[in-house]
Amino acid sequence: MSAYKKEVWFTIIMSALFLVSGHMGLIFSLFPVDGMLFGFPVMYIVPILVGWFGVLILTIIAGKMGNHIDQAIEDENNQNQSTTNSSQKGAS
């Protein structure tokens, strides 16, 4: 799979994960849950924790994986450019 296709899939998947993580409160309001966590009601503390720390963790992961994908795209472009240059040299 080319690096560009990987980047597109990575963007789609990370966007979906960010949406779910950032809107966890909406999910808990649709499906209310009774219980306590750290002395707080689960339907209040879990969306806050997932919203803050989930988005933080996803941002770190997206940054690191994005850098690897960008490097793969750059390597692929350099490889394509060198192949094009070598085929042009042979034609002259």
Number of strands: 2
Order of helices and strands: HHEEH
Mean pLDDT: 85
Counting helices, strands and paired strands, the structural category is: mainly alpha
| Helical amount | over 70%
- Summed up, the helix count is 3
Radius of gyration: 22 Å
Q: Determine the strand fraction and express it as a percent band.
A: under 5%
Task: Please state the overall shape, judged from the principal axes of the Cα atoms.
Answer: rod-shaped
List the uncertain runs.
none
Spatial strand order of the main sheet: 1-2
Distance between the termini: 33 Å
- Please, what is the oligomeric state? single chain
Biggest sheet, open or closed, and with what strands and sense?
Answer: 2 strands, antiparallel
What does this structure look like?
This protein is mostly helical. The protein has helices at 3-22, 24-30, 42-91, and strands at residues 36-37, 40-41. Strands 1-2 form a two-stranded antiparallel sheet. Strand 1 and strand 2 form a beta hairpin. Helix 1 (3-22) runs antiparallel to helix 3 (42-91) and helix 2 (24-30) packs across helix 3. The longest helix is centred in the last third of the chain and has 50 residues, at 42-91. The radius of gyration is 22 Å and the shape is rod-shaped. It starts with a helix and ends with a helix. The model has no long low-confidence stretch (mean pLDDT 85). This is DUF997 family protein. Residues 73-92 are annotated as: Disordered. Residues 78-92 have a biased composition (Low complexity). The chain crosses the membrane at residues 7-31, 37-61.
